[in-house]
Amino acid sequence: MTGKISSIIFFIFTIIFLSCAESGKGYELSAALSSNIFYSKPEQIIQQFEKNSNNCQKNFILAKAYRDKKELKTALLYYVNSCFNKKYNFNIRLFPQPVYSFIESSNEKSIFYNDSIYEIASIFYEYNEHQYVLKFTDLVEKDGSALYRESVLLRSKSLQKLNRLTEAIDELRKISSSYNDSNSQSLINLRFGAVYEAAGDFYKASDSYINVVRADSGAWQNSVAAKRLLYLTTDKKIKIDPLEKSIYFASALYDAKDYDGALLLADTILQDKKSASAETIKLKILTLKDYPKAAAFLKKMEKNTDYDRLLLEHANILWDNGNKYAAVKCYEKLSASSDSKILERILTRLSFFYEERSRPEFIKYMELYIKNFPGETQSGRFVWLIGRYYIKTSNKIKAVEYLTRGIKNYPGNTYSSYCRFWLHKITSKDNKSGITEEMLEDLSADNPDTYHALTLLKNKADKTETSLLLKNYEEAFKSKNTRKMQYCHSLLFIKNGYDNSYYERLKQFDSEITEKYTVIADLIKNPDYSGPFRHLMKKIEIYFYAGDVDSINREIKLIPEDNEEAQKDLALALTVYSQKHKYFNYSTFYGFRLLKLYDLRENLPFIPREFAEALYPYAFSECVNKECKKFNIKPELLLSMMKIESNFNYDSISPAGATGLMQLMPATASGIARELGITKFDLADPCTSIKFGADYIAWLNRYYKGQIEYMVAGYNAGAGNVDKWKAKNTGKDKDIDRFSEFTPFDETRDYIFRAKKYMIQYESIYKIPGK
Question: Domains in the chain, please, with CATH?
Answer without folding.
Answer: 41-140 (1.25.40), 622-765 (1.10.530.10)
